[in-house]
Structure formats: C-alpha cells, structure tokens
Specification:
Oligomer: single chain
Number of strands: 6
CATH class of the largest domain: Alpha Beta
Shape: globular
Structural class: alpha/beta
Distance between the termini: 7 Å
Number of helices: 13
Largest sheet: 6 strands, parallel
Number of domains: 2
CATH architecture of the largest domain: 3-Layer(aba) Sandwich
Order of helices and strands: EHEHEHEHHHHHEHHHHEH
C-alpha cells in the first residue's frame, strides 16, 4: 500500500444488525483501532440502553469515543468532528487503515465528508418555534417541515423536536430548504473512505431489534433508566429505550406497553437509518450473515 494512502473503513447499517462484531473482526484483521460514531454510546451513564460494546468486546480491539462523555456534558456533532479528525490524524501515524463504526448517520458523515455550513438566523425564529412546540405539539412542526422541505422531512429523526426545529429555523431564516445547504463547501479529507453496509430483509432486522430490546430489559435496562430519571430533561436522554421507560415510571404507561413502544420506535429508527445510509451510492452492501473472509476480500480490492 502506498504510504500516502490512508483508509477509513466505515461500517454502517441499521441498529442491531451486527456492526460491532464486524468492526472488531476487521480491526483485528488489519491490526488497527476502532472509532465509534454512535452518538449515544459516547455517554458513560448509558451503557445497556445504547447496546454499547461489552467489556469483552472492548478488550478485543482498542476503541475510541465510547463512554468518554457524561450526559451532563454539552457535546455535539461539531465537537465530535474536530475530535474524531484529530484522533484519526494521530492513529494514521501508526496505521494505514482505521475502522469506524456507528449508526448515527450525521456523525458518520461529519467524519467522512465534513459538516455542512448553515447561515446565521435570527434567534427569535427558534424562540417562536419552541413556543409552537409547546402550544401545538411536534406534529404541527413536522407538517410545516413536510411543506417546506420534504427531503429533510424524509431523512432526519422526525420524532426529535430539536432536529425538526433546527431544520425549520434554517428553512425560515435562510429562505431556502435546509437540504439545499447540505453538501456544499466541505472540508477535504486526507484519507479515503471505504463504506461497508450491513443489511437484511426488513422482517429479519425487525426481529433482531425486538430480540435485542428483550435482552436489554433482561440485562437491567429498567434499573439503568430509573437511575437517570432525575436527568430526563437532558438531550442525551431524549433517546429510544429511555424516554419510553420514563413514561412507565411516571405511571403513564404499563411496563409491557413501554417495552412494545421501545421496539416500535427502534424499528422506526432502523428504517430511517437505512434511508440515510442508502443515499451513499458508494457503499458496499453485504447481507448480515456474509462470511467475514468475503467482506475482507472485497475491502482489500478497494485498498
């Protein structure tokens, strides 16, 4: 391999498909380290509900950006981009290949392509939208976004009020759809990205998600969520697997219903992940049961 050529193998795909396991196998084969681009696995208080790598998995390969932050920290995708690029620069001093894994599309794109730059908008727009959220609910804002920018409506986490408000304030304040500001003047990267996607038939993905939720509950997700209930206002906890259980603790939902909602919301999330990741036409997709040697062989043809 040319000493100037540095590669990032980015592993993407829906939740519960087996990305962690594949990342460890690839890291071991290439004798390298792993960067996580999963925006919820950053937080040390959220271990079970984010399906973060287990202690055993962490011991099989060196990982970065796992449990390095607290939910109290103000951490965002812009900060992550800077830290991840700095970490890659460091890792490339001793490795030609680094593995990145994660299901948070925005965070993956921040590393591989760089972040988009948006116009400054009057903060009164956000205040107005926050007020509308309280008075009319998220559905009204979702409808507004659907009208102003159907592309963003179809790709962002539409159940996340902060994402919806962010997109709307750019649409209104910038005078153009949020999506029109995407993929403009990006920072150039000094490495090449090979994106490997794992997928399966929808029914298999959904069954794997349902099974994973049952395992999380058996491993103590209730206790973990209960220990965080005082902090439920924090953005990090506005997350599938936690917000549903907070409704159970408040007495609004029965436990069985809350668990079914976690499964349903996780399935919805997986659908959005696939929509996001399918936009990258360069991704090499594999069935989740593909043998590791076939994946390695294909990756090596790209190096």
């Amino acid at each position: 391999m040319n000493s100037k050529d540095k590669y990032l193998i980015s592993i993407v795909g829906p939740t519960a498909i087996g990305k962690t396991s594949l990342s460890i196998k690839l890291a071991n084969y290439f004798n390298t380290e792993i960067i996580s681009a999963d925006s919820r696995q950053f937080y040390k208080e959220m271990q079970i509900g984010t399906a973060a790598p287990t202690t055993e998995e962490l011991s099989q390969a060196k990982h970065h950006f796992i449990h390095h932050k607290s939910i109290e920290d103000n951490y965002n995708v812009g900060t992550f981009e800077k830290e991840a690029i700095a970490k890659l620069d460091h890792l490339y001093k001793k490795h030609d290949v680094v593995v990145m894994v994660g299901g948070s599309g925005l965070y993956v794109d921040a590393v591989t392509k760089g972040l988009d730059y948006f116009p400054d908008v009057d903060k009164s727009i956000r205040e107005r939208l926050n007020l509308a959220l309280v008075e009319d609910g998220i559905e009204a804002l979702q409808l507004q976004l659907k009208t102003l920018d159907i592309e963003t409506y179809n790709t962002i986490a539409i159940d996340n009020p902060q994402r919806v408000i962010r997109a709307l304030e750019i649409c209104i304040g910038g005078g153009k759809p949020y999506s029109s500001f995407l993929n403009k003047d990006k920072n150039k990267r000094n490495f090449k990205t090979i994106t490997v996607g794992l997928t399966a038939e929808r029914e298999i993905i959904y069954n794997r998600i349902n099974k994973r939720v049952d395992i999380m509950i058996a491993e103590g997700q209730l206790e973990e969520a209960k220990s965080l209930i005082e902090k439920k206002h924090l953005n990090a906890l506005n997350t599938v697997g936690y917000k549903e259980l907070f409704n159970y603790f408040k007495g609004e939902w029965l436990l069985d219903f809350a668990i079914e909602e976690i499964k349903k919301n996780s399935r919805r999330f997986a659908k959005r992940q696939l929509t996001w990741f399918k936009r990258n036409t360069h991704t090499i997709w594999f069935d989740y049961e593909t043998e590791i040697n076939k994946i390695i062989a294909k990756v090596k043809t790209k190096l």
